[in-house]
């Protein structure tokens, strides 16, 4: 039996809504955005557009999922084995998070997104407990812009 997470369904609905709303904008080969004029639209499309009003609340309705927060998990040892990193990434996925980037060159680690608020603290605490390693310690920092 397949288990579907509720936020996955909301994500699919949001992607479809964005695709539908951005239908009239086409990127040309030179990178500029082309928005067809009313002369370029088919008569049936014009009539349909005039008959139904655009619902601006689509984004608000589709955005029912909790806000997401991004964190960077960085291992202090650059030569941390793949098995340790993969175990940690699987632990985040099991706790409901997702991996957005993986770092292997200058630093060893990955970026995650998890629901913000109280849930994020619980997920991070559970992750620290599950993935803790004396041989390969890691740090967790909020992913945000750095100013020098």
Automatic annotation (TrEMBL):
A GO BP entry: vacuole fusion, non-autophagic
A GO term for molecular function: endopeptidase inhibitor activity
Keywords carried by this UniProt record: Membrane, Transmembrane, Transmembrane helix
TM segment ranges: 6-26
Superkingdom of origin organism: Eukaryota
Protein name: Inhibitor I9 domain-containing protein
SUPFAM superfamilies: Protease propeptides/inhibitors
Family under the similarity heading: Belongs to the protease inhibitor I9 family.
